[in-house]
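Quick one, T. Sequence first:
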Amino acid sequence: MNELKFQKDDFKKLDLKDLSENETPAYGVSMRKRIMLRFLRNKLAMVSLIVIILLLTASFVIPHFYPYELNDQNLKMRDIGPVFKAYRMSDGRKYHFSVDMKVWLIKDTDGFMIPMNQVAENLKKKEIYFEYGDAKVMLNYNNKRLKLTDMNGQKGEAITVFNKEHIFGTDALGRDLFIRVLYGVQVSLEIAVIATLVNVLIGVSYGCIAGFSGGNIDNVMMRAVDIIGNIPLLLYVILLMVVIGAGLKSIIIAMSSVFWIGMARLVRGQVLSLKNMEYIQAAKSIGTGNAKIILGHLLPNILDQIILSLILAIPNAIFTEAFLSFIGLGIQEPLTSLGSLCNAGMDVLVTYPYRMFFPAVFICAIIFCFNFIGDGLRDAMAVRMAR
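Structure tokens:
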């Protein structure tokens, strides 16, 4: 027989990036690495992950450089939207007026707005005169309509202007809505992450003990879970508000006291399915302690399920916090959250829709992104679940 002769060029290192979506190497790659590779190929999940990272970075970094603070008020700049109508007068300057008969001069250099001073009013002609430096205009409120003109009565050209000073507009107290939305994202994510981590810690511990113990201990522990799970979350929040008052602490405690139930049931079911496996029985036969079996053998084998449940629990916690704040049971002033911003914007939805639009968009974006990340992780884990 002829001997096979191989050259060095006949072999090349396998590049995992060159594999198609449904291809996995036959050997040499661990199951966790396969899951990671499949997850990285999910474009929607990766885009969602980038969006979440950008939102987190922006919410914690931008407030340190932004010219306005969370509760900075300027009543002269209240209820100004991100886009508004302005008028270019005969002097070439641009002006904006509001329904409460206030006038602003819009600077051409940077687009910032300067409140003009009311200097006189003609009650007979129903005219109010404003000026700022050499800029002078006249606001006529005759015939139940407001009309801005120059001092000769000539009406200006209507144009659309973007609010460069307050890119998301201002609220009823003249506070910058952009910085308030960023703080809302920060607070909402903090509450969701803290509550979810506490729930995972309690739920995993509780589920492991119940599932591994079995028998009467398991029955008693799970009946307690059923009782707690049947009590509405809203009742917990109301009781905590009576005891410790409304705010950040009460909403975290309320969410932490309920959300762990789903995790406990999930972990218990996984432990029940694994505790009679051969490698667990072998560990018991050589005298391995229960704590070491749980931490060293059971938890590593259900870690993927725990991480998946953790990712999917975060958007649920964000929505719950937003709902509680929306109905007035969550974050209170001077703090703010996306839910409380939506609550404030709901009252003026018809006249100032932007105050409801921006926080609602951020809530939807965060919830959708976490759900897409969770779906991508679940699809990536499908290989392991199939095995």
